[in-house]
Design goal:
alpha+beta, 4-stranded antiparallel β-sheet, 3 helices
Length: about 200
């Protein structure tokens, strides 16, 4: 039988932290001199470096925020200028629209005038051609040209002369679809007179 004397075992002193050469603090004996060997200066410098780094980081962030704010303000100013230019453009668009309308109106007037001048010139040419083709036994009472249609009123001694007159008109370069529109017989000073009306289209 093996006997162990527990009373002779040295109990640890928790108040002083000593138990032979070991303690509860890492079971390593630390003295005042050991604390004096810790590099306190390095710890302080490291702490200061951390604080400075944090300050510099905050300064850097603030600087970037200021740059972004400045860009935003510049963008807003540019937007205001663009909006002003757009407002000016809207006013110009109204003026431009009015100018376009005026230009179209003037063009239409010019075209109408040119057409009238052309029609008058063509009418004069038609009358000249009419005077060259009309027989001596036929005389005219009226001539009207409007919207591409021609109406001719006249008298003759006989309808044979009217037929000859119509044939010559049909051969000209100004009339087409010529037809006899109306006929009647008159007695003037005891002489029988044939009255007639012709209609035709103007050749394009």
């Amino acid at each position: 039988m093996i006997k162990i004397n527990l009373g002779s075992r040295k109990q640890p002193n928790y108040a002083t932290g000593e138990s032979g050469s070991k303690t509860l603090l890492g079971r390593v004996s630390l003295s005042k001199a050991d604390f004096e060997d810790i590099p306190l200066r390095k710890i302080i410098l490291a702490a200061i470096a951390c604080v400075l780094a944090n300050v510099l980081l905050e300064d850097f962030k603030q600087e970037k925020i200021n740059e972004i704010d400045e860009k935003i303000r510049a963008g807003q100013k540019k937007l205001v200028l663009i909006q002003k230019e757009v407002e000016k453009t809207k006013g110009f668009e109204k003026v431009q629209k009015q100018l376009d309308e005026d230009e179209l109106l003037i063009k239409n007037k010019i075209e109408t005038i040119q057409k009238l001048i052309s029609n008058r010139r063509r009418t004069a040419e038609m009358l000249l051609s009419l005077s060259e083709t009309i027989p001596e036994e036929v005389w005219l009472k009226g001539f009207r040209s409007q919207s591409g249609l021609v109406q001719i009123q006249g008298r003759s001694r006989d309808y044979n002369f009217v037929s000859d007159f119509m044939r010559k008109l049909g051969e000209s370069s100004y009339y087409q679809d010529l037809s006899l529109d109306a006929t009647s017989q008159l007695i003037v000073n005891g002489v029988q007179i044939a009255e007639f009306g012709l209609k035709a289209k103007v050749k394009e």
